[in-house]
Hints:
Elements: H1 5-15, H2 25-45, H3 50-73, H4 75-85
Helix pairs in contact: 1-2, 2-3, 3-4
Amino acid sequence: MPTSTAAKTTTIAANRRHEHDTGSPQVQIALLTQRINTLQSHFKTNRKDHAGRRGLLLLVGQRNRLLRYLARVDRTGYTDLIKKLGLRK
C-alpha cells in the first residue's frame, strides 16, 4: 500500500529547506519515516509477511544511514528533525 501523493506533498512541505526542495536529507528521512510507520501498522495485522518485513528493515537501515550523515554534516538540523519526527536518538 503506497503512500498517497497528498500525504507525500504535505510531508515534503513540512520538512523542506527551500521552496523547490524535494531531495534534501531532511525530506528523505521524513518520507522514509512515513513509509516505516505505514508498514508498522501493516505488520500489526499481517504478522506472517516476512518478505515485507525485510523491506521494512532495509528502509530502517537507509534512514539510519541518512540520519548519521545529517548528524555529521548539520548537527542542529539533525536535532531539530528528530524532535519533529519523534525519533529517539
